[in-house]
Amino acid sequence: MSGDRAYAHLIVLAQDIGSRSAGSDAEFAAADYIADQLTSYGYRASLDAFQVEYFVEQASRLEVLSPEAVTLEPRALHLSASGEATGELVAAGIGRPEDFPAGDLAGRVALLERGELAFSDKMANAAAAGAAAVIVYNNQEGSFRGDLSEESAIPAVSISQAEGQQLVALLAQGPVTVRLSVEAGLEQTTSNNVVARPPDGRCEEVVGAHYDSVDAGPGANDNASGVAVLLETARALALSGEQDGVCLVAFGAEEVGLVGSHRFVATLSGDERQAVRAMINLDMVGVGDQWQLTGSQELVAEVDAEAATIGLDPVPAEMPPGLSADENNFIAAGIPAVLIHRFDDPRYHSSEDQVQFVEPRLLEQATELALLALRVLSGS
Q1: 55-186, CATH topology level
Q2: How many angstroms separate the CA atoms of 90 and 330, rounded?
Q3: From CA 213, how far away is CA 349, in angstroms rounded?
Q4: Which region, left, alpha or beta, applies to residue 245 given φ > 0 means left and ψ of -120 to 50 means alpha?
Q5: Pairing of strands 205-210, 177-197
Q6: Residue 10, H or E segment
Q7: Residue pair 220/261 in contact by the 8 Å Cβ criterion
Q8: CA–CA dist 85, 109 (Å, integer)
Q9: How many Cβ atoms from other residues are within 10 Å of residue 72's Cβ?
Q10: Sign of torsion, CA 5 11 17 23?
Q11: Is the distance from CB of 211 to CB of 282 less than 8 angstroms?
Q12: Which has the least CB within 10 A, 182, 271, 314, 315?
């Protein structure tokens, strides 16, 4: 296996093709590239098209009207309601019910810090407190886009940590009035899963990674890194003659609600679902300080125990609040699954998620972990 070879795939996906949002021409180009590579390794690769309803942000605006005029750069939270609100800004911590000041917040705009609570919980608490809109500022350097699990009742945007601190500093001096507007909605598009079956056609194990990205950036770590490792894993299996029983799936439209993996699981027949022993998911594997394993407890424990034999020391972990990944759809269908990841990436869901920050040595280690997980599943 080769981290450099995996990195070459990453450059094609994240640099040559670029941002691969669901339904875009770039996502289609990435699907074709992945299918071509898997076919070259001897797999039977095909595209499975499906319809996607996705969130489109037409425009978001945020201005400080007083005590001084300031224009900020907001991004609508995924599934934010459209609308406009002008009113007094109120700081409310991380958005727990007890963080909101006593009294009616009608017409006011809540300023919340990212962290601890899922974005949907922050929104629900703010709406219950009477807020007319919500601004969430990052708890680490840079900007981000947050994902809601369902459409919010009030407009909600994210801003960078620096912009959030600027608003906090203004509040320390006295009342602040802001005007916030969001124009957004749901549209329909088409995406694809790239499904690669081995020569024997059987899927006893599934190795998966989503290949779409958010539209904010090129998605080098999230998740060209996972796809690059999936491709290098496929090549290693082919070279060793260990393809039988292993299917590889590059999921489309993950960033708009895990749609591709849901589609794949839903289209398995009863017999096919029974035949799949487990799923290995690769997501954000090229940046960060610590390997983590998340998913089915027994499978996580088995992979964790074996990882010491290759000199790696992953940590069993829980998914951070507000995040989910493709293995969840397999677990919900009764298929054990493990997520191999390094989610501690400060450039997550931003324009800075670029190829120069991804480390080839981590791609090689991720390939080792994926192959180790497959050996655990096969009992070899």
Answers
A1: Glucose Oxidase; domain 1 (3.50.30)
A2: 41
A3: 8
A4: left
A5: unpaired
A6: helix 3-10
A7: no
A8: 7
A9: 21
A10: positive
A11: no
A12: 271
CATH superfamily label, 3-43+198-378:
Zn peptidases (3.40.630.10)
Q: What is the mean predicted confidence (pLDDT) over 354-370?
A: 97
pLDDT value at residue 215:
86
Indicate which residues carry an active-site annotation: 254
Name the residue ranges covered by the structural domains of the chain.
3-43+198-378, 55-186
Q: Would the pLDDT of 94 be above 90? A: yes
pLDDT in tens, 10-65: 999 999 999 999 999 999 999 999 999 999 999 999 999 999 987 878 899 999 99
Those residues with Cβ within 8 angstroms of residue 91's Cβ, 6 or more apart along the chain or in another chain: 111, 168, 171
Quote the pTM value. Answer: 0.75
Question: Are the C-beta atoms of 351 and 19 separated by less than 8 Å?
Answer: no
309-335 pLDDT, tens digit per residue, is 888 989 998 877 667 899 999 999 999
CB count within 10 Å of CB 246 equals: 25
CB 132 within 8 Å of CB 107? yes
pLDDT at 380: 56
Token pair listed for 287: 């940046």
**C-alpha distance from residue 175 to each of 95, 167, 170, 171, 337 (Å):** 20, 11, 8, 6, 50
Query: Residue type for 377, please?
Result: L
Partners of 112 in beta bridges: 136
Longest dimension (CA), the chain: 70
